[in-house]
Structures are given as structure tokens and as C-alpha cells.
């Protein structure tokens, strides 16, 4: 039977490498998904994931068992990814976007035929600020006040960017569905 997260955390606090490896294996996939939502490329998401685990292991004393460990680790992954994104912007580097694979679903309306990869690709193609706010609000469940604090923007700007992101995403998805329908 697999060890509980609590037992793994206790063993990590005791400095046991096997527990660190087990915790990484248990949470790595989930946290990589978080990093991919905020980083402009898979390579940067992998860097963010590694930094996330370094922070987790070096800050275990800050985890006070006031909620699930997974939520605490997820918040570290979000802030680490956002910090890398901010550093990327400050250096003035172009934002690369990984391409999604097109595998349409059979049947249904043109919008129904868009695959999950199509949706992820369209989200990744949003301007970085829109993408970050959309992910933080719709996927991570942060409030606009929390998003404002994380991104260094006002609550109103967060609401505005979410609204614009939704409109742009909807327009792009309809356009992609229309193009797909025309090519069938």
C-alpha cells in the first residue's frame, strides 16, 4: 500500500531521500500540469517544476498542516511558474508557445469536434496576461483579489482581463470550428 502524503512529508522532513523521490513521483505529474498552464514552453514548465520541488523540500517547515499538502504544493507551483513568467517578460524575451496536436472528436457540432488539444492550444495562444488570469480564475479557483496580488495588478484589471480572455477564446474557438467545418 502506498504511503500517505502525510507520512511522506514527515519522512521528507527527516531528510529521507526515498521519501523525497516518492513525493516527487506522487505529485510531479499534477504539478507539471500546473506549470504548463503558466509557462510559455514545455522546457520552461520543466524548469518551473524542478524549482517548485526545490522550494517544497527546502520550505517544508513552513507547511503547517492547515489544509491539504497538495494545495500548498500547487500554490508553490503557481507562484514559481508566474515568477518565471515575470522574469521572462522583464528580459524582453519572445514567448514561445508549444503547438497542440489536432485530434478532432467524431460527430457532433463543429465546436464539439474540437479536441482538448485544440482548446489547450487556443488557451496557450492567448496573450500571456489573459492566459494567466484565465488559468488562475477558471482552473485554479483564485479570486480576483488573489489574482491581483499574484500578478501585481488591480482586482478590476483581473476582471477585465478575464472577460477579454473569455471573449477572445470564444471567438477563436468559433473561428477554428468554422474552419474545420469548411475543410470537411
From TrEMBL:
Keyword Zinc assigned to the entry: answer is no
InterPro entries in the record, alphabetically? RNA_pol_sigma-70-like (IPR039425), RNA_pol_sigma-70_dom (IPR014284), RNA_pol_sigma70_r2 (IPR007627), RNA_pol_sigma70_r4_t2 (IPR013249), RNA_pol_sigma_r2 (IPR013325), RNA_pol_sigma_r3/r4-like (IPR013324), WH-like_DNA-bd_sf (IPR036388)
Q: What Pfam families does the database record attribute to this sequence? A: Sigma70_r2, Sigma70_r4_2
Question: What positions does the domain RNA polymerase sigma factor 70 region 4 type occupy?
Answer: 121-169
**Keyword Protein transport applies:** no
Locate the coiled-coil region(s) and give their ranges.
none
Q: Specify the RNA polymerase sigma-70 region domain's residue ranges.
A: 23-89
Q: Which CDD domains match?
A: Sigma70_r4
NCBIfam families, alphabetized: sigma70-ECF
Q: Which PANTHER family match?
A: RNA POLYMERASE ECF-TYPE SIGMA FACTO, RNA POLYMERASE SIGMA-70 FACTOR ECF SUBFAMILY
Q: What is this protein called?
A: RNA polymerase subunit sigma-70
Source organism per entry reads: Hymenobacter amundsenii
Amino acid at each position: 500500500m502506498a504511503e500517505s502524503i502525510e507520512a511522506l512529508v514527515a519522512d521528507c522532513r527527516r531528510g529521507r531521500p526515498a521519501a523525497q523521490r516518492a513525493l516527487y513521483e506522487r505529485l510531479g505529474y499534477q504539478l507539471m500540469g500546473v506549470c504548463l498552464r503558466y509557462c510559455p514552453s514545455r522546457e520552461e514548465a520543466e524548469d518551473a517544476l524542478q524549482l517548485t520541488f526545490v522550494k517544497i523540500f527546502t520550505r517544508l517547515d513552513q507547511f503547517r498542516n492547515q489544509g491539504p499538502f497538495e494545495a500548498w504544493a500547487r500554490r508553490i507551483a503557481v507562484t514559481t511558474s508566474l515568477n518565471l513568467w515575470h522574469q521572462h517578460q522583464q528580459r524582453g524575451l519572445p514567448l514561445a508557445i508549444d503547438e497542440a496536436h489536432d485530434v478532432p472528436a467524431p460527430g457532433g457540432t463543429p465546436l464539439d469536434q474540437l479536441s482538448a488539444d485544440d482548446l489547450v492550444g487556443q488557451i496557450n495562444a492567448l496573450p500571456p496576461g489573459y492566459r494567466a488570469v484565465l488559468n488562475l480564475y477558471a482552473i485554479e479557483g483564485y479570486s480576483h483579489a488573489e489574482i491581483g496580488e499574484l500578478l501585481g495588478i488591480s482586482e478590476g484589471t483581473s476582471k477585465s482581463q478575464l472577460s477579454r480572455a473569455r471573449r477572445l477564446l470564444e471567438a477563436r474557438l468559433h473561428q477554428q470550428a468554422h474552419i474545420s467545418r469548411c475543410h470537411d
